[in-house]
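Suppose you are handed a protein chain with no further information: no name, no annotation, nothing but its sequence. What can you learn? This example shows the usual starting point.
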Amino acid sequence: QVQLVESGGGSVEAGGSLRLSCAGSSYAYGRNCVGWFRQAPGKKREGVASIYRTGGSTYHADSVKGRFTISQDNDMVYLQMNNLKPEDTAMYYCAVRVTYVNNACVIQDLTDADFTYWGQGTQVTVSL
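A reasonable first move is to predict its three-dimensional structure. Written in structure tokens, the prediction is:
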């Protein structure tokens, strides 16, 4: 069974940093696309970043570009979040999209419906 486990969430003040981790099996990742999404109360789930595991091409939503960075290391995928703002407060999820095509991993072109496997989420809270 494919399993993804997020960690690293917490509470920080505005301007602070957090690094989220997503642990997944090699089977879960394969040559697939891994994305980070977030969902704030009462809002739709929003894609923030994605990485194509083969080659490591990365993509970031405009709302986080320059502040968040997705990366990978073996079976881990990370989301480094700097200069956090209160509007970044949300539950953060990692997810896997089964694809063998790099250009099918551009987060700006994707929704949560395009991803098959999901972790349980980790909460990020940013206060003023």
